[in-house]
Design goal:
The protein has 71 residues and is mainly alpha-helical. It has helices spanning 6-16, 22-34, 42-54, 58-66.
Length: 71
């Protein structure tokens, strides 16, 4: 029925982020916004969306706009 997303959150946080992959920053925003493998935390989601948006990620920019946030 359901997929355990906890391992995915760990992968994005510890392996991809140190290498500054913008897509992983946006994906972490999605995980925190929706509570995938982590406790849902909209402020943490916004933080990650902003990091990705600063580096030009259009999906992150759209998520911030949808949430009523700006850079």
């Amino acid at each position: 029925c359901c997929i355990d997303t906890q391992p995915f959150a760990s992968v994005y946080r510890w392996i991809l982020l140190p290498q500054h992959f913008v897509k992983s920053q946006n994906k972490l925003g999605e995980f925190y916004e929706n509570g995938y493998g982590v406790t849902a935390d909209i402020q943490e989601a916004i933080k990650w969306y902003k990091e990705a948006a600063k580096l030009g990620n259009e999906d992150a920019k759209a998520s911030l706009e949808r949430l009523g946030e700006s850079l």
